[in-house]
Amino acid sequence: MLDLTSTSEQKTLGRSRREYRMEKPPAQRRKQQPGPAALQVAGINGLLQMIAAGRELPDVLGVLCRFVEAMAGVCHCGVYLIDWSGPKLRNAAATSLPATFNDPLCGLPVRCEGGPCASAACLGTQVIVEDVETDPLWQGSAFRALAALHQIRSCWSTPIWSAAGEVVAVFAVVQHQPARPTAPQQALMGLAAHVAGIAIERAQHALALKRTHAYLAQAQRLSVAGSFCWRVATDEFVWSEQLYHIFGFNQAERVTLELMASRVHPEDVPLFNDAMERARNTPGDFEYEHRLLMPDGSVKYLYLAVHAIFDQYNQLEYIGAVQDVTQRRLSEEALSKARSELAHVARMMGLGALTASIAHEVNQPLSGIVTNASTCLRMLATNPPNVDIARETARRTLRDANRASEVVTRLRALFARKAPTTETVALNDATREVIALSLSGLQRRRVILQPILAEDLPPVMGDRVQLQQVILNLLLNAADAMSGIEDRPRQLLVRTEREAGNRVRLSVQDSGIGLGAETAQLFEPFYTTKSEGMGIGLSVSRFIIESHRGDLTARQNEGPGATFSFSIPCEPPSPTAAVRQMRVL
Ligand code: ADP
What we know:
Helices cover about 50% and strands about 20% of the residues. With about 575 residues, the chain is α+β, with helices and mostly antiparallel strands. The protein folds into three domains: about 5-205, 2-Layer Sandwich (Beta-Lactamase); about 225-325, PAS domain (Beta-Lactamase, 2-Layer Sandwich), CATH 3.30.450; about 330-570, 2-Layer Sandwich (Heat Shock Protein 90), CATH 3.30.565. The chain has a five-stranded antiparallel sheet. A hairpin with a 5-residue loop joins strand 8 and strand 9 (about 300-310).
């Protein structure tokens, strides 16, 4: 039996009233002893500090029980968590109650008739059992037998609620004599249940957070991805374990921009610096790719998606995810190489077939012309000249010449373009689509693309797809022009702007090799300086822009590189102009 009345037992229950009193400075104590209210505040404060410091739940609840035992007088306290999946009571802290009482109690199912604690949990109300022996409610219950075994006569069970309104535990006070709680005891139990609720929720959140961290770490390991947080003002970085692993850094190392840059592939350093600079100066979400050069000489491809937020002091912070896409990139590259080889072969075969058919079509009438013309000459050279045959062969020459001319007309008809469809085109959107399509390819070629799209751009009338073809061609040409540039960043600026005369202009400015002296030549069909070039991109682009009543021009930049730009009017063409245009086509 537990003798709760003896002072020695009271001391073992936890901190005695005397201990709580000692928290006041001795000088003050002599003058004025703290009352129960002050002790209560001191005790609760101490508990809240423990919770805030993240102390383990059993420790906090143990101190809470001892505190109530010390404040309330002769009693034992326990906190029983409710496992609703059981549903069962689980002992979280009942420091002064023996295991012979707690263990069987905790096995009991949570049912209204199971005992005062189970009942308080089920009903969500406080259950006060003044005398277990005489209370008819618990006569046949397992709880009554357990209480009798430990000479427990009274039991007061108070539900502990979560912020979400669910009973998460029960705070129990038991005594060896029949008793009802006094008003201060009631208040103390209410307070204890409240503090216990805070501690339990906090512990549950900490556990959930721990689990989330564990899942995240596992997910990052599986997806070969890491995450980071960057406080821009102070350049502080917090990296996930997996990110250290991707960069091949030791977790003890302090992450700095310099450390990161030291691992970036030298060719991608301008790209990396530019991304950092842009992130610093223009807060916003962004994505980009760069490579790492690892100490063993291997190359890793990283994909970064970064989200900007502002902390409580309005300081810019980035939260980002980094994925190691090396495998994907290598397979993409292999695929794209295979695809471009295939396209090349197909083009060569197509061109070959086309050339053969043109040669065949034109050759026949041409050789006819040659044969007939020489027969004609021979007939005229005889003495006397055979005028009839000469006339006939001259007629045949004419026929063959007409056939050759027809072939050429047919071929022209075959390659003639249709009149552009006219619709309202938001040039900025059309440009963004082209950029999105070509971005990963450009990044792979280490091109730093910066779009500066005018906000007030009026829509233009034209053929969206054709205009996009032009933009794409200009972007690809710019990337080609920069492919050999190693001593400066491969900057590509795509700008849209409004122009006088209700027109809009789109320019593509690169920092590539620039233009030679003869810019007009660039627009000639089949003019190319590239080994793999066809030399038709710019001539087709100019054709498209002119059919939109615009003009496409090229100029050498003041610095390195060239700028290609087109300007088109916003209004639709007049019906007569459209007809004229179709005739020209
Ligand atoms: P291709 O790209 O197949 O050569 P294009 O008609 O598109 O055909 O281009 C013709 C030529 O114009 C290119 O071969 C190149 O010499 C020149 N050119 C085009 N764009 C640029 C540029 N941005 N910078 C320098 N030269 C360029």
